[in-house]
Amino acid sequence: MNGLDGIFILTILLLAFWGFQVGVLGTAIWLVAAYGAIVLGAQLAGRVVPLLGFPANYTSIATTVGYIIVSALVGILARSVSSSVRAMINVTPLRWVNDIGGGLLGGVVGIVLVTAVIVAAAAFTYVVPEGALEYGGVSYSVSYSQIYLYDAPRSWLDEQLTGSLVVEIISGLRGIIVPFAPNEVGVAVDVLFSRVN
């Protein structure tokens, strides 16, 4: 367990409290938005990268920025829908059920958010060049990604991720996370999970 675990656990607890404040319907809207941001971010981040003007050797940073941009746009849409639903539910007698269910669902949103951060960190840390998967397959991509670990920030992040108890627990969801990630990001996440286990 390391400092990253403390941040992850605090994030989950804060989002559970936030879910209690927003209610189950508002939290459900945010959960769908978070999942949509992960899926859309994975699919659209590569298309956003050329628009950002990053040089070719900064694709992992550009992909992370692409995830952030897509997530922000989805978050703005979710906030407007959630606010209107919360205003309508506050006038009904089911307000307490809404609040308690929101707390539970808020914890789930926290887990989804932490998973998204782990995926983005893996994509930054374990660089898999575009086309490496098609050129030499998964084993070539995995071995190629190890070259970049000698870079100081990536080396530090690798130590934090592989030493994290939360990442070890999330790696149990490997069969759910890896297939939904695009090629290079999926390989990067798979590299992280194989280094944890």
Topology readout:
Layout: H1 3-22, H2 24-52, H3 59-89, H4 95-125, H5 132-145, H6 152-162, H7 165-170, H8 174-180, H9 183-196
**Overall pLDDT score:** 78
Secondary structure tally, helices = 9
> Can you summarize the main beta sheet?
none
Helix/strand structural class: mainly alpha
Straight-line distance between termini:
15 Å
**DSSP strand count:** 0
The shape, in one word, is globular
H/E element order: HHHHHHHHH
Poorly predicted sequence stretches spanning 5 or more consecutive residues: none
The helicity comes to over 70%
**Relative strand content:** under 5%
* Rg calc: 18 Å
Number of domains: 1
Describe this structure in words.
The chain has one domain. Helices cover 83% and strands 0% of the residues. The protein has 9 helices and no strands. The chain has helices at 3-22, 24-52, 59-89, 95-125, 132-145, 152-162, 165-170, 174-180, 183-196. Helix 2 packs antiparallel against helix 3 (59-89) and helix 5 packs parallel to helix 9 (183-196).
Write out key terms for the chains shown.
9 helices; 197 residues
Task: Describe the structure in brief.
With 197 residues, the chain is mainly α.
